[in-house]
Amino acid sequence: QVQLQESGPGLVKPSQTLSLTCTVSGASITTDYYYWSWIRQPPGKGLEWMGAITNSGSTYYSPSLKSRTSISRDTSKNQFTLQLSSVTPEDTAVYYCARAYTIVVRSTREADYWGQGTQVTVSS
Fold first, then answer.
1. Which residues does 83 contact at the CB level (< 8 Å), separation at least 6?
2. Spatial separation of the C-alpha atoms in residues 15 and 58, rounded to whole Å
3. What angle do CA 118, 123, 124 make, to 5 degrees?
4. Do residues 80 and 36 make contact, with C-beta atoms less than 8 angstroms apart?
5. Where are the strands (E) in 42-92, listed by range?
6. Using one digit for the tens of pLDDT, what is the confidence trace for 69-86?
7. 52, 67, 55: which is closest to 28 by C-alpha?
8. If you placed Cys at 111, which of 39, 60, 81, 98 could pair as Cys (CB 3.0 to 4.6 Å)?
């Protein structure tokens, strides 16, 4: 069974870098051709796709976040990581990792497996 699990700090100070890791089990991020994605949901708002990394290591980013976002992977641990720099309180959200069929994820239908989500709050 495929499982994804997000991990990382729940509280980040403004101007710092948010770093989250998604650990994948039951599937391989290097052989399975999906878009291993990061999506977030701010309070009271819809899903916002942030970016993705493929099995070959190619990366794709949301244009609105591209200047602050980096997605990488640790193939030995079957993990992929999100880094979001210069965070502000507007980056407060539940952050999800997911295995997606498409580059851009706009709804839950476009990914078949999701992590449970992790709340990240940006506050001093």
1. 17, 18, 19, 69, 70, 71, 72
2. 27
3. 140
4. yes
5. 48-53, 59-61, 69-74, 79-84
6. 999 999 999 999 999 999
7. 55
8. 98
